[in-house]
Amino acid sequence: MAARRALHFVFKVGNRFQTARFYRDVLGMKVESRSVARLECSGAISAHCSDYTRITEDSFSKPYDGKWSKTMVGFGPEDDHFVAELTYNYGVGDYKLGNDFMGITLASSQAVSNARKLEWPLTEVAEGVFETEAPGGYKFYLQNRSLPQSDPVLKVTLAVSDLQKSLNYWCNLLGMKIYEKDEEKQRALLGYADNQCKLELQGVKGGVDHAAAFGRIAFSCPQKELPDLEDLMKRENQKILTPLVSLDTPGKATVQVVILADPDGHEICFVGDEAFRELSKMDPEGSKLLDDAMAADKSDEWFAKHNKPKASG
């Protein structure tokens, strides 16, 4: 099978200022790129989610109604790092968490040091491993060590209701390799390559609840593989949330995308690698653009003036 890459995980965030502080000042990530209220790749993909709002002409006559922004943050460019896509929907203050996302683990003694200096809450859950939370309640596990590899992000952990069924899906259908497996603890570590962020599946009792804060994990593959991947899912009667589609971004690459759902409803986005590499180039002004936008953001005042309290998902 041709090379596939782990790209990013999408988080819905309700507090832009605290969120930016956590990812930049605590974890030490950098802003890779930012887009505001544009129907680009992520906007078009996200339109099928009930609490994402597709932008219409009418939206622009209302400063914040129906608009969203996204910010990509990571320890380096998405070509060789796993990053976080932070999606902020104006008007939504917070999201109800389910048990589907169980955390991201990264190795960074610097992040542990940053958290201590900033008095960001840390709980030691194992020797040298600290649990902390991003704004919104998303869990991160910080290993108090640094690795020679360029990307400190080690794994994303998702809950599954039937480990064997999930392994069949992720390995036999999506082509992932099993790196570790523990039947007793009902967990398995999967990946496409040794030097990439891994996917950890953790069995849970009582089913997987996505609530309103559910995110999406994204991978890339050679564009020519996307039609075959979609056909395979059809033959296997697996859920396809968004059939293969080409997304045009004016002045940039046209990216092909298909969005799937695993047996527990985890959303999985596969994009054509060649065009995505062009689209996801790092913006050297990303951090400044984010700071400027947050400084100019008067959405709280706007919602208060119009008697529109920010909703909870």
Automatic annotation (TrEMBL):
Residues 5-145, 152-273 form the VOC domain. Keywords: Mitochondrion, Phosphoprotein, Repeat. It is found in: Mitochondrion. InterPro entries: GLOD4, GLOD4_C, GLOD4_dom, Glyas_Bleomycin-R_OHBP_Dase, VOC_core. GO terms for cellular component: mitochondrion. The keyword Glycoprotein does not apply. Gene3D superfamilies: 2,3-Dihydroxybiphenyl 1,2-Dioxygenase, domain 1 (3.10.180.10). CDD domains: GLOD4_C. It comes from the Eukaryota. It holds the Pfam family GLOD4_N. PANTHER family: GLYOXALASE DOMAIN-CONTAINING PROTEIN 4 (PTHR46466:SF1). Interacts with NUDT9. Belongs to the glyoxalase I family. This is Glyoxalase domain-containing protein 4. It comes from Pan paniscus.
